[in-house]
Amino acid sequence: MAALFTAGIACGSAASAASCGRTSAHEAFDVQGLKSELMVTALSCNAQERYNSFVAKFRTKLLSEEDRLNTYFRATYGKSAQREHDDYITQLANVQSERGLQAGTIFCSQRMAMFDEVAALSDEHDLSNYAEAKDIVQPATFETCEAPAVERATSNSRRRARSTRKA
Known about the structure:
Blueprint: E1 2-12, H1 13-16, H2 24-45, H3 48-57, H4 59-77, H5 81-103, H6 107-111, H7 113-119, H8 124-133, E2 137-145, H9 155-166
Antiparallel strand pairs: 1-2
Helix pairs in contact: 2-3, 2-4, 2-5, 2-8, 4-5
């Protein structure tokens, strides 16, 4: 899988969806962004119990998406995957906290409704769709697309091509 991760550009998840279509990595980034947004909201607005309820309800999905993120970072960064993943999580929380600071006293009234919205979701599929539809701030834009298949000539076919040119 060819992948590109460009850090430092704040954008919503809709802007990060590349022309190659929806991939499991996109879904993982969307869900992680939502989880982080809810965590920042919980800490800023004294709603830790509501955050814990969200985590308990969607624990399986959240763990699955965390595994997908780990796979993405390993495939993209190799030996430095854990450091890059940790940096991403830190930057994600930072940009979302900064957004809260900019909103000031209205932040909690703007964000607390998200807890009601996720509580009303029926299942993991609904959570993925919700995360994709929300304008969640990300610290980066990312693109994950399958690399196009490249036909490689074997040494026998190259030899045959050379011998036919000589004839």
